[in-house]
Amino acid sequence: MKVPFIYHPIYSELQLPERHRYPIHKYKMLYQWALAHGARPDQFIQPTPMNWSQVALAHSSNYINKLITNQFDKKEWRKVGFPWSTQLLTRTLTSAGGTFETVKTALDKRIAIHFSGGYHHAHHDWGSGFCLINDLAMSAVLATKAKPNLKILIFDTDVHQGDGTATLLRDHENIFTCSIHGERNFPFTKVDSDLDVALPKGTTDGAYLDAVKHTLHKVTKDFKPDLILYDAGVDIYRRDDLGHLDVSIEGIFSRDYFVLDYAKQNNISLAAVIGGGYQRNLSRLILAHAQLLRASHQVWSD
Ligand SMILES: [Zn+2]
C-alpha cells in the first residue's frame, strides 16, 4: 500500500527575516525528497485550512481575536517567535487543517503522514516556541467530537515537552497525552501530561529506544487507543541545534519504524506529524525527517 501523505505548498511559503531560526524551507524540501525517492504525486492529499470556529474548540475567543487582528504585544510575539502577517495566519490554519486531514485519513486507511504539524507549545490563550494554535489538540478534539467513543493517544517524541497539548487536553477522558522529551530543555516550566518521560542530556540510541518502546507498550496496554497521533520530531538528533540528546540517524529510523510497525501489528491507526527539527544545514535536517518516510515505506510496502 502507498502511504497517504498530507502536504500543502503554503507550508514553506512564509516570508521570514534573514537568518531566522525557523527552517521554513524544510517542508518543500521534504516533499521534493519524497518525490525523488519514489513517492507518487497521487499519493499526496492537499488539506483545506481549519476555520476559526474549529480553532475555538481549543483556544479562547480573546486570544483568537488578538491573533487575527495583530494585537499581541511585543513580549507575546517574542514568545511566539514569528512576525505577524496574513500569510502566517493562512499557513497556520492550513497546517492545522493538515493535521486534522491526517487524522481522518489514518482512521480510514490506518496510516497517514503529515509533512508539517506538531505545534504543541500553543496554549489556551497564549502561543510560544513557534506555535500559535495547537493542531494536535484541535485535531484530537474534532475527531472525538465526530466519534465520541474514539480513543486517541497523542504520542509526542519531539525533544521538547508537549506542554500546550497537556494543558488543553487535561479534561478529555478519551484523549491520552504522552510526552517523551529532554528534561533540561524548553519549555523550562513543564506541565503534567497524562504520562511524561524526561530524558537526561546526552541520551544515546539504546536508552532512548528503550524508553520509547517501554512507554508505548505501557500506554497502549493501559489506555487501548484506536488511533495514535504521533509527533515524530527529529530534534532528538545529535546534530540538532536545540536538542541536546545524542540520538543518531539510525536511532531516529529505529524509533519511527518501531512506532509505525507497533501500531500496524496491534491494529491501531497511526497519524504522524513531522514535528520539530532545527539545523542550519537543511539537507541534513531533511535526511532526519525522511527517516519517517523510509520507515512508513518499509512497514507498509507489502
Ligand atoms: Zn521540538
From TrEMBL:
Keyword Hydrolase attributed: yes
Keywords assigned by UniProt, alphabetized: Hydrolase
InterPro entries linked: HDAC_classIV (IPR044150), HDACs (IPR000286), His_deacetylse_dom (IPR023801), His_deacetylse_dom_sf (IPR037138), Ureohydrolase_dom_sf (IPR023696)
All residue ranges annotated as the Histone deacetylase domain in the record: 24-289
Pfam families: Hist_deacetyl
Annotated CDD domains: HDAC_classIV
Family per record: Belongs to the histone deacetylase family.
Stated name of the protein: Histone deacetylase/AcuC/AphA family protein
Organism: Idiomarina baltica OS145
Upper classification of the organism: Bacteria, Pseudomonadati, Pseudomonadota, Gammaproteobacteria, Alteromonadales
